[in-house]
Amino acid sequence: MFFSQVCSFPIYDGHGGCLAAEFAKKHLHLNVFQLGYRVS
């Protein structure tokens, strides 16, 4: 199934440690963009 729109509302709460939350904050959106999703 393919979705033409994706919404993301991440909460970087530190579950798994502060460094994990900081890493996700800095890198998660880049991985999504690499999958081909675009920002409108």
From TrEMBL:
Cited InterPro entries: PPM-type-like_dom_sf
SUPFAM superfamilies recorded: PP2C-like
Name used for this protein in its record: PPM-type phosphatase domain-containing protein
Superkingdom classification of source: Eukaryota
